[in-house]
């Protein structure tokens, strides 16, 4: 099940997700948060040990009422609601592109989109709101009544009174790391979707 991407010494190992039902190349130094605290069964969560960057791979219900082109925006706004970032100026979409299917390992998806935006969010219901760039990938799998969401949270400015203030303000994971994750997401066991 383990596959490699790239060539030579720099090849990256695909990491099993959801007990091996999916796999993808996760950026280096990713800490599996389920080893630290309980994570919902429909999520895999990774964090960088020195920055406040995080990655979430999530299985959600297929939203049949949402057009393909609006699926990423729908989920971005849903995340904004969960982050209590729906007021004017608290969230903004800056880019939306379709991901070409020939570049994706997840051939089972009907389509895939990537959205980039920002949200002003607080952690743990704190007053301090940090500005976070959110890169969101959505893979639509109507035949399984499922969508796979992959979210890359990349803080841009962390307030000094935030619990994240001690995080290193460098950006270790890049947009290219995120694109690599999207392109290498692979389904090994459709039974994952029930």
Automatic annotation (TrEMBL):
GO cellular component, one term: nucleus
Gene3D superfamilies cross-referenced by the UniProt entry: Mog1/PsbP, alpha/beta/alpha sandwich (3.40.1000.10)
GO MF entries: guanyl-nucleotide exchange factor activity; small GTPase binding; sodium channel regulator activity; transmembrane transporter binding
KW Amino-acid biosynthesis (keyword) present: no
Keywords: Protein transport, Transport
Record InterPro entries: Mog1, Mog1/PsbP_a/b/a-sand
SUPFAM superfamilies linked: Mog1p/PsbP-like
Protein transport in keyword set: yes
GO biological process: atrioventricular canal morphogenesis; heart contraction; heart looping; protein import into nucleus; regulation of heart looping; regulation of heart morphogenesis; regulation of membrane depolarization
Database matches in Pfam families: Mog1
Entry similarity comment: Belongs to the MOG1 family.
PANTHER family in UniProt: RAN GUANINE NUCLEOTIDE RELEASE FACTOR
Name by which UniProt lists this protein: RAN guanine nucleotide release factor
Source organism (scientific name): Nothobranchius furzeri
Annotated gene: RANGRF
């Amino acid at each position: 099940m383990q596959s490699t991407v790239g060539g030579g010494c720099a090849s990256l190992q695909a990491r099993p997700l959801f007990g091996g039902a999916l796999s993808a190349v996760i950026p280096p130094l990713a800490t599996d948060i389920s080893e630290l605290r309980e994570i919902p069964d429909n999520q895999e969560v990774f964090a960088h040990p020195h920055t406040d960057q995080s990655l979430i791979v999530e299985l959600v219900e297929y939203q049949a009422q949402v057009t393909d082109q609006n699926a990423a925006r729908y989920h971005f706004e849903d995340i904004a609601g969960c982050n209590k970032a729906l007021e004017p100026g608290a969230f903004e979409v800056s880019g939306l592109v379709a991901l070409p299917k020939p570049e994706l390992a997840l051939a089972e998806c009907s389509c895939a989109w990537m959205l980039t935006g920002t949200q002003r969010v607080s952690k743990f219901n704190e007053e301090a709101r940090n500005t976070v760039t959110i890169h969101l990938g959505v893979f639509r799998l109507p035949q399984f009544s499922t969508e796979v969401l992959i979210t890359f949270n990349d803080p841009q400015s962390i307030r000094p009174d935030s619990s994240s203030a001690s995080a290193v303000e460098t950006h270790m994971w890049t947009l290219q790391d995120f694109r690599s994750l999207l392109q290498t997401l692979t389904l090994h066991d459709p039974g994952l979707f029930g």
